[in-house]
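User: Some background: our group keeps a shared notebook of sequences we're curious about, and every so often someone picks one and asks for a predicted structure to add to the entry. Today it's my turn. The entry only has the sequence so far, pasted here. Could you supply the structure so I can complete it?
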Amino acid sequence: MKKHSNKALNPFLLLISLLFIYGCVANKDTAIDRKFQNLTARYNYIYNSNVLLTEYNEGLLQSYTDNYEKILPVYLDPEPQVNLVLTPGTPNKQLDEVITKGQSIINDKSFSNYIDDAYMLLGKANYLKGNYFIASEYFDYVAKTYNNNLKTFVMAMNWKARSQMELNNMVVADKILDTMLRAADNLKNDIAEPLATTAQMRIYQKRNKEAMLLLENAVRLGDDKQLRIRWRYILAQLQEQENDLQNAFINYTKVENSNAPFEMYFHANLQRIKVRALISGYKVDEDKALLALLKDDKNFDYTDQIYYQVGELFSREGKFTKAEENYQKSVQKSTKNQNQKALSYLKIADLNFKEFNNYIKAKLYYDSTVMILPKNFPDYDNIVKKADNLKYLTDRYTIIAKEDTAQMIAQLPSTEREARIKNYLTPKVEVANVTVLNNQTLNNPDFPNQSLNSPQVAAGSTFYFNNNAAISTGFADFKRRWGNRQLEDNWRQSQRSSAQENTQVMTGGNVANTITPANGNNVQSSTDQTSLEKQYLDALPLTPALIAASDQKIIDAYFEIASFYQQELNDKNEANKIYAELLRRYPNNNHLDAIYYSLYLNNKGVDENRSNEFRQLVLQKFPESNYAKTILDPSFSAKQSTMENIANNNYNVAFEAYAKKDYPGVIKQANDNISAFPDNDLAPQYAYLKAIAVGRTAKLDPLLTEFNAITTLYPNDLIVTPLVRDHLKYIEANLAEFKQRPVALIDFDSNEPRFVSQAKPIAVPAKPLNNDINAAAEEKPAETIVKPVEKPAEVKPADVVKPASIFSAATSNEYYYVIDVADASLTLSSSRFGIGQFNRGNYPDNDLAHKLIELDNDQLIYVTSFIDLEDAKLYESSIIGQLKNIMKVPANLYRGFIISKENFEKLNSRDRINEYLEFLKDNYK
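Assistant: Of course. Here's the predicted structure to add to the notebook entry:
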């Protein structure tokens, strides 16, 4: 009987199994199939997918790092990227499994009621993986397909808006949220997250008060406890920012008393204490309350933030020295939180810049801030700009300190100088007992080269780098073997080329080429201490001429600092202080006209009596200056620009006549223009054209008369006069030959105007640049004339994928100075003639040539060649002040720069030129 029952049961069980399998795999639109699909979709896929998403979010909550110095994001999402780069989502087992389950519902359970949930799962999983565009498409499909289901529509629109916000499509996201909110008016439940998402948009839009109202409702209606706690903390942050301190205090207290994560609990407590201090005014007690948090072992990892908040309280009270002490402690204790360290650096930098006026120290801390601070930090670009600006200022303050020190040592008795120099130049190294950095550190001449990021820890640790005794021993061993080496790249390399050592910004200004470290050490690191001391001693300003040169460096530095404050930083008060200091130290300096005029402008509308005082000084002491003319006629500058354009155009006409050998026309036009514009800077160049025209049509004596008139009337001109002196010396050396000629100057090649006979071009290697600007005055043999090379073929770009930069910062054996003229239609022959005059007059022994290459929209005049970067910079510093008179085109159309031969060959368009100038700025700071 038992045996028989088993046989009868087996077919029955088999039939049931087949029916069950059929129900599971069959995809038919029947009542039974729909029930089976709903059952399996809900409990096999939807439920498990939601469990996976919950587990993922819990893990994200544990790993996500909040920056509590900013308004927290409403969700644990990354900040929207300004320049978004779309990349494949990061593989994640949990999220990939959710995607698989969602696809299974769509493919295998197509008659179930959970297809919309499946698409939502696909959208959420892709969103969490960072595939925001794909996620947005899924949510858009759900919103359009299931718009009759209000809850589904609102949730889909909510997530779509979040996706667009992550894609930085804020305008699109805002429109989506408006549509969502209108629909959500009829939704009674599940409204908290849409309100919170809208609040996030209002925060991005800086509409904090609207965000506060939305968050208040989201906190009241939300179901997720952790999200409600987070939203309440954000609400408190916004209330504090909007100065609603009472409600901020209430909400911080509620967060502190809730089941918040410890880090949020800690910051809520910290902010609560700070806000209570602001409300009550019991500042000292609040300082103690904050410091009392240090006693709790749980707060050990937040010591840096506690000190930072104490510093903030002292800063608000105006106790800036104590504030800096606490910020310094915050830096020392910041071992994990780099954002906090960067903020502390920033506060120290701001204090030294604004309150202590310690610009060298401020520059160091701004640099450290920029190195650590994330680029998406608010105001990051302005911080970088401030650091760059301070580079300009600190370079000039360093010049002042260096020259003052040199003059002070020079005034000592000769018996004391060597000892003082030795003490000044001896490197100072401290290994143990590191104390808080303060203003006294500036007495160390090596301070600008020190690092701010060095960890400072107590002695006694067994770890080598925490053990001061071990470090001291190691340092002694290192010094015994290597000597005093600065901490820098390639420190083992003791001898370096000048190009390797050059790290200064390629800028103009009278002091740009004299900037050296604060300790005066501008020699190679291989120079031994004794030799260095001897060089410093020999360079001391001991004679009246050397003292005057040193004073001029200080004057130029002060003047450029004040001008920078006035024109770049728009800080008139600080500019006035610097001008006043310059006048106090050097009341008869060579910038008086500009200083008086600047003080007249800066005091105008602030202190009219002072403004009028400086106005009268300009008019009385410098009545012929452009400043005085501008005071009397505010339109003088515009008229002057018009006159300069007319003068340039007239000069071009005269030069065309010169090129056509219309010498009587050249003489007439030169006379007319010199008579019409006797004080114009082009007058010497007109006189030179006239002299050459006279030399082509008359004997020697009239030519000598014209040349001597130029040296007499324009002795300080740096373009024509040095060249004329060169001509006179050559004529004197060959006087007999010149007297026998029927005309003083023989015919010439119009492409290279000269007054001597031309020789065939001889290729010669580049010579080191002679920095003596008056070298032309020395006796020299007749120079070899090199004709300009024909325009080279346009450089074609290589058909390769553009890398981060195609330019190289590698040292080159050949450098050019380039003048880019941003108009391909202009005739530049007269400008090239002026460059040739400048080169032959000021660098007669260097065989400099200038050539022209034409691009589609630009023309490049380039001067060749310089053997290294230092020579190119010396040339740039000498010609940059003369370009206004050399170039016969509007000043806004040309710009000059230095470039290596290898990089120059890559310039083939205006875009490529602009790219190089950005590269130049980034790589030669």
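Suggested note for the entry: DSSP finds 38 helices and four strands in the chain. The chain has a mean pLDDT of 78.
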